[in-house]
Amino acid sequence: MFTYNQVNLNFKTVKLEKIGLMPRHLTLLTAGLGYLGNVFCVNLTYVFKKEPFLDFGIAEAQLASANSTLLIIQHVGIFLGVILFGSLADRRGRMAMLFISVGTYSVATFLSGLVHNYYLFQVLRFVVGLGVASELGIGLVLICEIFSREKRTFLIIFIAFCGFMGMFLLSILAKSFHWRTLYIMGGLLGLLIMFFRFSTFESDIFLKSNQLKNQLKKSLILPLLRKRKIYYIIISILPSYLVTASSIFVGTTYFKELKVSAGQSLLFFSIGGGLGLIFISLLSKKIKSRKKAITLCITLLLILASIYAFIKPTSIHSFLIINFLFGIFVTYQFELLALTIEQFGTNIRALATTLVFGAGRASVFLFSLIIPILNLIVKDLLMSVFILDFIFFCAALWAISKIKEDFCRDLSFVDE
To answer: Considering the entire predicted model, what is its pTM?
Structure first.
């Protein structure tokens, strides 16, 4: 006996096969475009540090304080969004929560480009934080569950590449368009993705595991937080975001005499990331170990951070080359998210993946607060960054060594 969902899915499959597509391919495209929009929308706050605030009538002397306040609000939204949408994705399904999260950040970003009240702008950035928090994690879990394990590496490359394309597009467009125009464009991009809603379908692993129904209903954050490996993974992802904070945003401030903009830095960083994600993903597939590939990247990032701090770029070219190399190796975070998906069962997989990614993303703001405080003691900004690099990179190398390797594991299991 067929259910309505099965009949509907068969009907959609027949229509899509006529143009050479299957529903799972559109699901993959949706997840990829969702992450492209995610990266585009969330980085608007970092690229436009002055223009929105000046338009809202905030004095130039108060820009730093206004920026910090806005980032706090956005990251509170990210923290709450991780718990809310991650938990619901394990309870109610991946696809529905994917579209709700995309719709949430898209509408809020679109409206952010229209408002003329600073406090309403803050509220909307909080809502953006809610939406972007879990979109990548849910999208990765969904596509890894609907495709075969042999294709997992290439799926991750595609999703990650879409994200770097979002960063690349923003870095290019920021030179030519008003901040309001890009906010509106980012929102419209996300809303266009909603048209795929009726051509995608839910994960079979989630739907067909009838024997897991009781466990899925009990999916909560507390069982996840009792597992040590979630903390090991979170520690392991922090260096990639520390590098992002220091190379793009702190670096452009420290090397003012080089006259490098955040947009230029972001451009080279994203180009390196696009190449790096292919290299790192194929490397892990070749050696059949995500742990070894991640360990290699963290080690090389520590070496680059040492060069950055002690030798210091003396020209715009050397600065951008280092940013390019940083971009290559921070892509280990996508291998780490794949490792997270393979570590946790269906009942907490989406929550675990969104928590790891959300913690990493939120740490950018935390590092941006710690670095100036440490600089008051050390009296050297780059040395302050290096001290943090050394601490967190060593911690990450220790943490990744504690995680069990489950390369391309079958995902049809639950956690007790």
So the answer is: 0.82
Per-residue pLDDT tens digits for 302-316 = 998 888 778 777 777
CA 278 and chain centroid, separation: 17
Return the CA Rg of the chain. Answer: 21
Q: Which residue has the tokens 């080279």?
A: 268
pLDDT at 255 (0 to 100) = 62
Question: What is the distance between the alpha carbons of residues 80 and 58, in angstroms, rounded to a whole number?
Answer: 28
The residues near 414 (Cβ < 8 Å, ≥ 6 apart) are 209, 212, 215, 216, 345, 346, 347
**Quick one: DSSP state of residue 257?**
G
Question: What are 210-258's pLDDT values in tens digits?
Answer: 455 555 455 467 777 788 899 999 999 999 888 877 766 566 566 666 6
Terminal-to-terminal C-alpha distance of the chain: 32
Is residue 367 within 8 A of residue 239, CB to CB? The reply is no
Question: Do the beta carbons of residue 124 and residue 111 sit within 8 Å?
Answer: yes
Nearest 5°: CA angle at 374, between 370 and 380?
125
The DSSP output letter for 405 is P
